[in-house]
Write a structure and sequence with these properties.
There is one protein chain. By secondary structure, the protein is of the alpha/beta class. It has 15 helices and 30 strands. The protein has an 8-stranded parallel β-barrel with strand order 11-12-15-18-19-20-21-22, surrounded by 5 helices. A 6-stranded antiparallel sheet has the order 23-24-25-30-27-28. Strands 6-7-3-9-10 form a 5-stranded mixed sheet, with no helix packed on it. β9 (about 155-160) and β10 form a beta hairpin.
Length: about 625
């Protein structure tokens, strides 16, 4: 964490079975219900397919059953009889359904891509999964084409898949508000029958992960104008810069080098009325448009500190947060400079990282942070990145412990689910270590994921040194499971700070590193858009290059597949296989010519999503020439 001019950074959040028997996502990402006709609650979401835009459904529901003998999907759901098998409906863009069970492994609808869906009416296709009350399933458009993630269901009944969510009545019946997604709830238990409620603990869920585009210093309006190309490039989430009112804002100052860090020195816990990033109205417009395209919007939140330095608080805070400004001894920790070489709990959580360190254990400070999170949620935010999360204490921090995360992030999750049927994706910034006698895993009860900067930085360094062994690394220095990590080729810390590790790295090498980490199973990935010389600009369009887009779509397509790593001549490869899928992402070193053994991939013809060429895997070996990006993304044809 460098803060002289400071900046900061899947597991899909799901719920578990509530005491009232509402249909929920299980700990494996499954929809579950004690009864197909139980009352409704909150949405259980899976990420939408990377190549498909789906309409937004906003609704309030009742649980219902339906019958395949009905000739129209507009029939009253209340007239549908109970069934003892699973009947699914999906939009007509889907072609096949692939299903499987865990133990023993059975594929009731055959090998990938499964069985063709049946036409139901103008809106829906359908399929009866007879003889099963629990099943893994994936809707897809054919081999090597768009697919959903694992949409496991663990209850008999009628299930409509619409706008990346399961419904238990037809969401297209009548007015748009007539039905509601099948529910999730906030609970500390991950078992299907658990109902022990606790707002302090993140509900355990699927291994769903995100491909996040960090639109660094972009305004909400500028992001809005680029949504189509962002969606087409396979991203599942957008991350804004901090939206809080920042110190020293002036519309006349637009030089990136002199202004960017000010966004990380807020003077308010409220969306800015005037900022380089926009205002509340433009943010709400962005969220609405992004949701319609199946994209999440994550907001970079600064809650650890306010504007100033380690010895004083900016007097501009008085305009927006007069209570905090007027009683600094109560609402701030003692002003002293953070010693980056001292990783004691006291210094890490109580010391200044360059700005006045808020007393985050104080109830009023917590209330102001929660108020801001609710404002973002009300505007449509899908989640948050918490800047400097490492420097905010945990309930387990002994003398310095507090319930900050319980009363802010966990409370915000409860608010989002109870008010909007929305699961939040939240990740926290921890750089290098969590501190002495502290662990990354201490934060996982509250966050979907945490940054594992050492993992991505090591892979980028390996790319730069042509170290294929390091490029093919699956090491997570944080000690977390991949599903609890956010990886990158670089971040704004590694690039924007004066001594940033990637400041002198070529965009090409950074992109190669990004493609490699994005191919990892379960981990979320972050692409940082290097800014131009002025605020609200990009240095290049590499963030939507063919290679980056192919890696993003590869990540989503192979979300449920196994992984292995291999090295070859001038290259490293991430192999993904299983559940009827076979593919590999290969990154070359200083030559575009490569050859590598892919021991877990089936022989046959593969299409390269980057160059469009075909490659043949024979005796588990493949060789050829990558395009100028040095990235090959093979998917079995």
């Amino acid at each position: 964490m460098k803060h002289s001019l400071y900046v900061g950074p899947a597991l899909l959040l799901v719920g578990i079975l509530s005491s009232c028997g509402s249909p929920l996502l299980s700990s494996s990402g499954a929809v579950s219900s004690s009864s197909p006709s139980s009352s409704s609650s909150e949405a259980s979401s899976t990420r939408s397919p990377s190549d498909t835009s789906e309409e937004t459904a906003t609704s309030t529901s009742q649980m219902a059953s339906s019958d395949s003998s009905l000739s129209s999907s507009s029939a009253a759901s209340s007239s549908l009889p109970q069934i003892d098998y699973i009947k699914v409906f999906c939009e007509t863009s889907w072609v096949n359904i692939y299903t499987w069970t865990d133990s023993p492994k059975v594929e009731p609808q055959g090998a990938w891509p499964g069985t063709a869906l049946a036409d139901y009416d103008a809106d829906w296709k359908t399929f009866d999964i007879v003889g099963y009350t629990s099943i893994h399933l994936i809707f897809n458009q054919g081999v090597g084409k768009t697919q959903t993630s694992d949409l496991k269901i663990t209850a008999a009944g009628y299930w409509w898949y619409y706008n990346s969510e399961w419904y238990q009545e037809n969401p297209k019946n009548g007015p748009a508000s007539s039905s509601e997604p099948a529910s999730t709830s906030t609970s500390s238990s991950s078992s299907q029958g658990g109902s022990t409620s606790s707002s302090s603990v993140l509900p355990l869920g699927s291994d769903g992960s995100e491909t996040i585009l960090q639109c660094f210093d972009w305004s909400c309006s500028n992001i809005l104008n680029h949504l189509d190309e962002i969606k087409a490039a396979g991203y599942t989430a957008i991350q804004t810069s901090p939206l809080q009112q920042c110190k020293d804002y002036s519309s006349g100052n637009t030089d990136t080098s002199g202004q960017w860090w000010k966004l990380y020195q807020p003077i308010a816990f409220k969306i800015a009325s005037a900022s380089w990033t926009g205002d509340a109205s433009s943010f709400k417009t962005l969220c609405t448009a992004a949701k319609n395209k199946g994209l999440k919007v994550l907001v970079d939140v600064v809650a650890n500190h306010l504007g100033g330095d380690h010895s004083y608080l900016s007097d501009q805070v008085n305009t927006y947060e007069p209570t905090i400004y007027g009683n600094q001894s109560q609402y701030f920790h003692n002003y002293f400079a953070y010693d980056s070489g001292n990783e004691s709990t006291y210094v890490v959580t109580q010391g200044s990282i360059g700005m006045p360190d808020l007393n985050t254990g104080n109830a009023y400070v917590q209330s102001r942070v929660l108020s801001y999170l609710k404002e973002l949620i009300d505007a449509g935010a899908s989640g948050f990145r918490f800047d400097a999360a490492k420097h905010i204490e945990l309930p387990s921090d002994g003398t310095y412990a507090s319930d900050f995360w319980v009363n802010t992030l966990s409370a915000a999750r409860t608010y989002a689910t109870s008010t909007y049927n929305r699961d939040l994706f939240a990740y926290g910034e921890i750089l290098n270590s969590a501190g002495n006698s502290r662990h990354y895993s201490d934060y996982t009860p509250y966050f979907n994921a945490l940054t594992d900067n050492r993992a991505g930085n090591a892979i980028r360094s390996a790319v730069e040194s042509n170290n294929t062994g390091g490029m093919a690394s699956s090491n997570y220095p944080s000690g977390l499971a991949a599903k609890n990590t956010v990886l990158w080729g670089e971040s704004h810390d590694t690039y924007m700070n004066g001594d940033g590790e990637s400041k002198n790295s070529s965009q090409s090498n950074v992109d190669k590193a990004y493609c490699l980490v994005t191919a990892h199973k379960d981990a979320s990935s972050l692409y940082f858009i290097r800014p131009g010389s002025s605020m609200n600009s990009a240095a290049s369009s590499n963030y939507i290059s063919k290679a980056v887009g192919a890696a993003n779509r590869f990540h989503t397509q192979f979300e449920t597949a196994d992984e292995s790593y291999s090295t070859g001549s001038n290259c490293a490869a991430v192999q993904r296989y299983g559940n009827g899928m076979s593919g590999a992402l290969i990154v070359t070193t200083n030559s575009t010519n490569f050859s590598v053994s892919l021991n877990n991939l089936a022989d046959g013809t593969y299409s390269d999503a980057v160059s469009g060429k075909s490659f043949t895997v024979s005796n588990h070996n493949v060789s050829g020439t990558a395009d100028s990006s040095g990235v090959v993304c093979l998917v079995k044809a």
